[in-house]
Inverse folding.
């Protein structure tokens, strides 16, 4: 080999170092880093897919197990209630054939209402009994009710021994209801209640329950006022008899069963639903309302529930909703399982399990996006890390190549050892050792780099310590802030409660002020009318006296004139008799003679009626006289009927049943006249065709009473509590002010009395005023 060739192969230290690094270090490292990043990304995608599959299997198994376990808990609760119901039915059947004599104290609890209902008075703490008016209660029915009172301790024990059971009852074929605990059955039930038309009776009859076992009803609104209920019912037959004597039942509030279900803490922000055998959603948590586009029912219309069975609307039925019908079909085909469905545009995963006995299903629903959220977040984080790694590596190698290029010009062999030391320092810092051993070198640049790396490690260590301390302080501040927010929230809640109470008190005072103002206005109007009526009556009486006097004189003069005419007729010459008769015929003298007594009698009757009206008007018109004085209620009634005759003469016939021995009371007569007029006018206005108004009066030892009953249209029960409110009226706009009964109520209350109302829609109303004989 020639020297020239060797000279051509020679390279500078920089070229050797640079070329060697490029070929043997830099390029392999870059390729390895790229391969590692590619392997990292590929592995991440494979792991993510495997995680998603694992999560799906785990979620399905977890949801299915949750539904199964919770359904078993509910099934055990319902099984206990069903067993108690079966025992209740057996004891009741045995009670029918067991001799029993009720105590006198027990018999004394029963009474008969005005509507024909035989019932127990409330407040005794024992079982209540209600015998509907559709059954005529005779001695046989009374003996039956007293005989069955022997099951009262059984019902009390069943209710008090179970936290689920809220009521125990027996309904018989003739609409007798015996129920525990006690409440005012007459106020809650309609008088003509027919229990055989409700699901808690007919679902246990021979047609629906031929096996005579325990039956669970669908959820319904309880007519006894306990909200959404489900009943475990069982038929009662006598021994060796196929006649259904009645149905016993134990009521459980659905809220007692579903409270635990709604409070379940499920993974992936899931929630649970309770579905009955027909596919109706019994209960759902608030978080489920957006998915199902429903709002849970919390308000109850007991007035409708008393008249008929009341169930949830069709929107709550899975079989009748397009989005849940496939799921409902799968639930109906299998006792448990898992299915996918779409609700409100989102993919859901649902697991269900059947609750034996009641036929209900527990349904657990989870958003699939929440199940895979961790996997998606992990993928995004890995992608971000990969991008950061690639960018960091590119920047690092660019800087590093530039650094090597500049240093390779000046450094040869002495560069290798310091570079290794610097590399070790970098690795140590990267591994968390922020104070590595400093590399000592006589190369200024490398020594500066070594010093910089050491200072950087110190700075990173100090920053890391400060960051940890700052995190601790931040956690402490967050805890203190949460405590302050909780304290402030508690203060705001207390302030809101106080403000709510003040608003309620203000509304009550405003209502009382309106009532007082209305009564004052009405009293002022009556006083003004009284003054005007007094003046009118006096003005009528003056000329009326002349008319009465003149008619009396005419009654005396008429016979005299007739006698004079007869005497004149006898004195007329014979030739003038024909002329006299012709004149009498022309002037209709004979008709005048015949009609004169009747006309005078009619005039006398007319002026007598006018005199009676003016006297009654004067009697009634003392509205401004508010002095307390002895008052005859019968006289007030007679006077008022004359005054308001025009209000009822074409609408009703007055029937009076006034007690002749009624004593006087201490009262303001003018104000009581106003009360009587308001009740009579109200009765007349309630009649659309000719009817009857019956007015009665009577007394007891220390009270007198009078009542006004009509055969008008009556009032619905929901209006009875408001009829005495100022400005409340059921008439059309412009046909009533709503002040008459409100003012009457205020007057009776001021007299220390009360007004009792009994009204049946379509049959009429009866207002009874009870007043003390002596004011305290």
């Amino acid at each position: 080999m020639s020297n020239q060739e060797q000279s051509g192969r020679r390279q500078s230290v920089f070229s050797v170092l640079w070329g060697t690094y490029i070929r043997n270090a830099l390029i392999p490292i870059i390729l390895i880093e790229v391969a590692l990043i590619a392997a990292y990304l590929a592995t991440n995608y494979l792991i993510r897919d495997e995680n998603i599959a694992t999560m799906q299997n785990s979620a399905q198994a977890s949801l299915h197990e949750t539904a199964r376990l919770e359904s078993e808990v509910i099934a055990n609760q319902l099984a206990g209630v069903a067993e108690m119901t079966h025992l209740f039915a057996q004891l009741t059947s045995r009670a029918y054939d067991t001799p029993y004599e009720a105590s006198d104290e027990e018999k004394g609890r029963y009474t008969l209402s005005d509507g024909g209902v035989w019932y127990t008075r409330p407040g005794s703490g024992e079982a209540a009994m209600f015998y509907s008016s559709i059954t005529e209660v005779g001695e046989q029915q009374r003996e039956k009710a007293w005989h069955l009172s022997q099951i009262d301790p059984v019902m009390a024990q069943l209710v008090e021994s179970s936290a689920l059971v809220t009521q125990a009852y027996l309904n018989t074929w003739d609409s007798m209801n015996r129920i525990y605990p006690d409440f005012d059955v007459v106020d809650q039930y309609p008088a003509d209640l027919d229990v055989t038309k409700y699901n808690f009776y007919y679902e246990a009859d021979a047609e629906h329950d031929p096996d005579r076992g325990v039956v669970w009803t669908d959820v319904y609104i309880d007519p006894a006022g306990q909200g959404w209920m489900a009943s475990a019912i069982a038929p009662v037959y006598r021994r060796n008899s196929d006649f259904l004597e009645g149905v016993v039942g134990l009521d459980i509030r659905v809220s007692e069963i579903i409270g635990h279900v709604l409070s379940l803490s499920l993974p992936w922000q899931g929630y649970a639903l309770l579905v009955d055998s027909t596919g109706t959603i019994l209960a759902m948590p608030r978080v489920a309302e957006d998915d199902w586009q429903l709002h849970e029912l919390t308000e109850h219309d007991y007035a409708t529930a008393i008249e008929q069975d009341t169930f949830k609307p069709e929107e709550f039925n899975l079989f009748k909703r397009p989005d849940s019908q496939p799921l409902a079909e799968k639930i109906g085909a299998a006792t448990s399982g898992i299915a996918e469905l779409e609700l409100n545009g989102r993919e859901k995963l649902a697991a269900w399990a059947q609750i034996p006995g009641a036929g209900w299903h527990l349904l657990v629903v989870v958003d699939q996006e929440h199940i895979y959220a961790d996997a998606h977040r992990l993928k995004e984080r890995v992608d971000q890390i990969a991008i950061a790694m690639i960018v960091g590596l590119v920047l690092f190698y660019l800087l590093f190549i530039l650094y090597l290029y500049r240093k390779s010009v000046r450094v040869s062999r002495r560069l290798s050892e310091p570079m290794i030391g610097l590399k070790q320092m970098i690795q140590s810092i990267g591994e968390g050792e922020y104070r590595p051993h400093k590399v000592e070198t006589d190369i200024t640049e490398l020594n500066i780099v070594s010093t910089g790396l050491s200072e950087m490690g110190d700075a990173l260590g100090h920053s890391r310590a400060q960051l940890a301390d700052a995190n601790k302080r931040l956690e402490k501040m967050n805890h203190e802030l949460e405590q302050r927010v909780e304290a402030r929230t508690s203060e705001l809640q207390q302030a809101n409660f106080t403000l709510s109470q003040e608003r309620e008190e203000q509304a009550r005072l405003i209502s009382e002020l309106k009532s007082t103002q209305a009564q004052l206005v009405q009293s002022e109007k009556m006083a003004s009318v009284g003054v005007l009526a007094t003046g009118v009556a006096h003005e009528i009486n003056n000329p009326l006296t002349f008319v009465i006097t003149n008619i009396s004189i005419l009654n005396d003069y008429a016979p005299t004139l007739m006698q004079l005419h007869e005497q004149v007729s006898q004195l007329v010459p014979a030739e003038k008799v024909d002329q006299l008769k012709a004149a009498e015929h022309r002037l209709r003298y004979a008709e005048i003679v015949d009609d004169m007594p009747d006309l005078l009698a009619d005039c006398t009757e007319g002026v007598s009626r006018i005199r009676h009206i003016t006297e009654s008007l004067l009697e009634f018109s003392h509205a401004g006289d508010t002095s307390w004085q002895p008052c005859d209620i019968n006289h007030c009634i007679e006077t008022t009927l004359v005054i308001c005759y025009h209000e009822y003469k074409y609408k009703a016939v007055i029937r009076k049943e006034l007690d002749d021995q009624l004593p006087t009371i201490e009262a303001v007569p003018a104000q009581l006249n106003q009360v009587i007029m308001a009740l009579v006018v109200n009765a007349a206005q309630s009649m659309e065709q000719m009817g009857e108004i019956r007015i009665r009066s009577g007394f007891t030892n220390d009270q007198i009473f009078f009542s006004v009953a009509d055969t008008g249209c009556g009032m619905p029960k929901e209006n009875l509590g408001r009829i005495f409110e100022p400005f409340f009226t059921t008439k059309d706009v412009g046909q009533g002010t709503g002040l008459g009964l409100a003012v009457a109520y205020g007057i009776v209350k001021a007299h220390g009395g009360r007004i009792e109302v009994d009204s049946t829609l379509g049959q009429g109303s009866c207002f009874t005023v009870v007043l003390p004989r002596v004011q305290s």
